[in-house]
Automatic annotation (TrEMBL):
Residues 1-158 form the Glycine N-acyltransferase N-terminal domain. Keywords: Acyltransferase, Transferase. InterPro entries: Acyl_CoA_acyltransferase, Glycine_N-acyltransferase, Glycine_N-acyltransferase_C, Glycine_N-acyltransferase_N. One of its GO terms (molecular function) is glycine N-acyltransferase activity. Its EC number is 2.3.1.-. GO terms for cellular component: mitochondrion. This is Glycine N-acyltransferase-like protein. It is an enzyme of class 2 (transferase). Coiled coil: none annotated. The lineage of its organism: Eukaryota, Metazoa, Chordata, Craniata, Vertebrata. Residues 161-248 form the Glycine N-acyltransferase C-terminal domain. It comes from Zalophus californianus (California sealion).
Length: 253
């Protein structure tokens, strides 16, 4: 989808065979400028009809750049076992995180703007000047690579935020390179005001209006977000979202 909209992350698709493919991997184009420590941008998404075809793609020469830190994402369980086995054979460290997969349907609740009264706070969108705050507050952030990644996401994809009377973001969510809603966050002093729900539902409607899927993921122990998603009638999918971060020995120090 993003490849057909200007391809801002310079992606390409690799398949095991064509036209009768059994495995698909999206990756960065080889000519794209890369940072070997940037697992945010060095990202692969995986889908397969036969996990053995996926394993064969992983083992093929030049499909994956095993000499950099990178991530693999997928919604199928064998992604974890197969990726881990091949990575171990190449002596890479693997960090796996698994999430509940969620989607917002057209039947989800409508945004409630009652939380916004008067001229402030106001509902708007993020800009690149907000990236430092997002980098500092993201559990996955706090580094130079994440800051660059967030700037790119804000520049390329839909976002929503609530700003206070000084124009500072107090609650927000944005969209990642795989059209997934991510980094939904409200500053602690502004919680319990309905902002998170307002932001999530507004972004979902914004994505749907632009032809994007309305999808996200949430950790099993994030009870506050799970409760919010249930309240707005989001659908918890039967599959899980898996993210593996793989690190070569040269960068594991």
């Amino acid at each position: 989808m993003n490849m057909n909209r200007g391809n801002p992350f310079q992606k390409e698709v690799v398949v095991d065979s064509w036209p009768d493919f059994k495995a698909v991997i999206t990756r960065r184009q080889k000519e794209a400028e890369t940072d070997n420590l940037d697992h945010y941008t060095n990202a692969y998404a995986v889908f397969y009809k036969d996990f053995r075809a996926y394993q064969q793609l992983l083992e093929e020469h030049d499909v994956i750049n095993w000499d950099q830190v990178f991530q693999i994402q997928g919604l199928q369980n064998e992604v974890c076992d197969v990726s881990n086995a091949v990575a171990n054979s190449k002596q890479l460290g693997v960090k796996l995180t698994s999430f509940k997969a969620v989607q917002f349907s057209p039947h989800s609740a409508l945004p409630d703007t009652n939380a916004l009264k008067g001229s402030s706070p106001r509902l708007t969108y993020l800009n690149t000047a907000d990236a430092d705050l997002l980098n500092r507050t993201w559990s996955r952030g706090g580094n130079e690579q994440c800051l660059r990644y967030i700037v790119k996401l804000i520049s390329c994809f839909p976002s929503v935020c609530v700003r206070d009377d000084k124009g500072n973001p107090v609650s927000w969510s944005l969209t990642d390179q795989f059209a997934t809603m991510c980094h939904g966050y409200t500053l602690p002093e502004h919680r319990r005001k309905g902002y998170s729900q307002l932001v999530a539902l507004t972004l979902a409607r914004k994505l749907r209006s632009q032809g994007f899927p309305c999808q996200g993921n949430v950790l099993d122990d994030n009870t506050a977000s799970i409760s919010l998603l249930k309240n707005v009638r989001a659908e918890f999918l039967p599959c899980r979202f898996h993210r593996l971060i793989l690190t070569p020995a040269a960068f594991s120090g």
